[in-house]
Each structure stands twice: as C-alpha cells, then as structure tokens.
Backbone:
C-alpha cells in the first residue's frame, strides 16, 4: 500500500489544506463515515427498534424488572462494537465501555475514586489542561489537593520522569493521573514503569490515553494500571465522538457513567451502554475505523506515521535553527518543534502564527506557546508526506 498523498482522497479533508493536525480532533475517512450513515439510516427507519432493542436491549429498568428488551441472546450492537474495540487494545470485552471522549473518561473515573479531605491527586505538568481542570474541580469538592510533578523537558528523559514521580508519591497520594501520549509536547510516557512504582506504593493509576489508540501499539491490561481511557476519534479513525474506558475488574464496582440512567445497579457494561436516548452511531462505527487501519496494515501505519513525525522534527529544527531534544523512543505520531526564536513566546504570537499558516499558506497545524517559545506540533498521518513538512518549514520562514 502506497502511503502519502495518494491516500488523501480516502478522507473528506479539504484538498486545498495541508492537514498536519490529525491529532487534535481526529478526522474520519469516507469508508467509516459511510458505515456511520448506514447506521443512521437504520435508526431513522425504525428508531424504537434500533435504539431500544438492537443497540442497547434497554428498557430493563423501564419495565420495572426483567429485561423486556432482551428478546434475543445476541449481543447488542453496542456490546458487539465494544468487543471489537476491546480486542484491538488487548482487553476483555466486559472490561471496556464507550464514553464520548477522553475528557469524559477521565471525569468518570475522577468521580468514582474515593478521596477524603487531605488526600492527594498526583499528576504531571504535562497533563491536558481540561483534565487538570477536572482534577482541580474534584479535589476542591473533597478537600483534596492536586500536585504536579515537573517532567524533564524539553530535554526529555523517560527514566528520570519515573524517578520524579516515585519521589513525589506521599502518604496521602491516592491517585496518579498520567498521559500515555502528552498533548502539546507529544511525548510517549513510560506508563507501565510509572504504574509499577505506583502499585508498589498502593496508588491507583488512571491513564489518559487520548492520543494512544491507533497511534502506538496498545495492550491495556499489560500496563498494570487501574483505569485507562483513550479516544477512538483521533488515531483509530472513528467518527467524532467516540472513546473507550477500560477498568480493571476489581475497579468496576462503584464506577458509574457520568449520566445515570435506567441501568443503574445492573452491572458495569449495562450501565455505560445505555445512558439515555442519544446518537450511538459514532461508537457503532468505531469498528469500521479499526477495519480501515487493518486494511492499510496497522503496523505499517504506525511505522509511516512515526517515521514521518520523527523526520519532520529533524527537518523543521534544522531549517528553523532550533533544538529538538526528545529521544526518538519517546516519539509516536506527533512531534513538537520550537519555532524560530524571532517569534516571541507568548500565546498571542502563537495564535497569530497559527492563523497566518492557515489563512495565508493553507496549512493547519497546532501552534502554542510554552517555556518562552512558540512551538509547532506536527501530526503525521498516512495521507501526509515529507513535502507537507517542507511546505510548513518554508511557510514559517516566510512569515
Ligand atoms: C492528553 C489529552 N487528554 C485529553 C484530551 C481531550 O480529548 P477529548 O477532547 O477528545 O476529550 C486530549 C486532546 O487532545 C489530550 O491530548
């Protein structure tokens, strides 16, 4: 399979735009959107049949007792889809449920983890801003605190991060929240090694894997964590919005969806599978995204995206005279590179640069300010190739 621009028309993306931003909100291919539309057509034709029988076998609570919806022993469409997602991440199907997005997955777990006054949530300074907000919100309500471990960055060292987290764990640390792939800085973090230290200290671990599924090979149970949430609408090609939440079997009791509905008390998967009337087609179409990846060859996709991201880092840093200090082993499918130093390192400059790249040069890419610099994070996807990165390099120099 030839990757690069030859694949671009497999996505509905605007051909006039150089899209180097796949990671930010994802982009679903035509094949997947067609599957989703077929599901929507089916829903439109017989909404009750689709939503209350085929999709969820809901109504067990509505009927006040035994499940009237369970007219068949066939798995519901939601369960069948969850099974395929579970298999993709190496998990048992009953340990995986759908949520709308990684933010929801994190919030779900934060609501469930017992925290008393004086307890601590530990995380890193690389956590996603919205997730930091969720941690602060939950901690404030319980009289708990959120503490941040500073990651060794921009000269990133994965082993040093493990040591810093280990040293930061205190007697009141109850929960560690850690990214699998950080957002703006795009670092693949050593979550298994971090979890090992946490287990030894009795600290529960939640992994925010927003960017991991479909970007790097993933076997969730082998990480030794308690909870893992990951987006399907970013790198596994599902339509927005689809994500999953995995919980170790011992953690499922007491873990409820953010929206409490009819299935309360009827078991982990039943509760999450039926959260009121809603469009479930993004979840149901998620397996089509997995098939799309399988047809391209998942290992080849990972290799192409990784190699292109790494090469982009080298090329951009060389062209812009800046330094890339992350090791290749901590790079997945995205890379963050400092822009030339003549750009002031503030948010307004970053925002102007992002707009100028899009509106003057037709390039969509993530631009942000941190550590006194403007940074540009490139996402590499199979529809991109080196010439896209060269256009970005030239455009920044021209501005
Ligand atoms: C590390 C991390 N966590 C959470 C999110 C939020 O993802 P979503 O908006 O799909 O919930 C992102 C988004 O990029 C992210 O990078």
Residues:
């Amino acid at each position: 399979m030839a990757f690069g621009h030859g694949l671009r028309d497999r996505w509905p993306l605007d051909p006039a735009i150089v899209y180097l931003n796949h990671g930010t909100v994802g982009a679903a291919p035509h094949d997947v959107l067609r599957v989703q539309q077929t599901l929507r057509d089916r829903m439109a034709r017989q909404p009750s049949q689709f939503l209350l029988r085929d999709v969820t076998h809901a109504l067990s609570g509505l009927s006040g007792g035994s499940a009237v919806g369970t007219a068949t022993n066939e798995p519901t469409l939601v369960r069948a889809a969850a099974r395929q997602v579970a298999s993709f991440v190496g998990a048992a199907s009953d340990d995986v449920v759908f949520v709308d997005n990684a933010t929801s997955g994190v919030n779900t777990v934060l609501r469930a983890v017992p925290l008393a006054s004086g307890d601590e949530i530990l995380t890193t300074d690389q956590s996603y801003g919205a997730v930091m907000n969720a941690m602060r919100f939950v901690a404030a309500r319980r009289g708990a605190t959120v503490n941040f471990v500073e990651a060794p960055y921009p000269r990133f060292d994965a082993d040093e991060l493990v040591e810093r987290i280990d040293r930061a764990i205190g007697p009141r640390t109850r929960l560690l929240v850690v990214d699998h792939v950080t957002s703006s800085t795009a670092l693949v973090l050593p979550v298994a090694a971090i979890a090992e230290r946490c287990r030894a200290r009795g600290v529960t671990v939640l992994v925010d894997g927003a960017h991991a599924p479909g970007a790097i090979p993933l076997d969730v149970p082998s990480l030794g964590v308690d909870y893992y949430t990951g987006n399907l609408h970013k790198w596994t090609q599902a339509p927005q919005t689809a994500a999953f939440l995995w919980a170790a079997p011992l953690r499922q009791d007491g873990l409820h969806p953010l929206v409490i509905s009819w299935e309360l008390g009827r078991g982990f998967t039943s509760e999450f599978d039926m959260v009121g009337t809603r469009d479930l087609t993004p979840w149901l179409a998620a397996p089509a995204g997995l098939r799309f990846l399988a047809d391209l060859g998942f290992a080849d996709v990972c290799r192409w995206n990784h190699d292109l991201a790494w090469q982009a880092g080298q090329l951009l840093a060389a062209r812009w005279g800046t330094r890339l200090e992350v090791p290749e082993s901590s790079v997945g499918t995205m890379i963050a590179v400092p822009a030339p130093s003549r750009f002031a390192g503030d948010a307004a400059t970053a925002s102007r640069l992002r707009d100028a790249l899009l509106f003057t040069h037709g390039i969509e890419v993530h631009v942000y300010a941190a550590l006194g610099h403007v940074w540009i994070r490139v996402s590499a996807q199979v529809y991109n190739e080196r010439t896209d990165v060269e256009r970005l390099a030239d455009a920044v120099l021209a501005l």
Notes: The pocket of pyridoxal-5'-phosphate is lined by residues 101-103, 128, 130-131, 179, 183, 208, 210-211, 231 (CB under 6 Å).
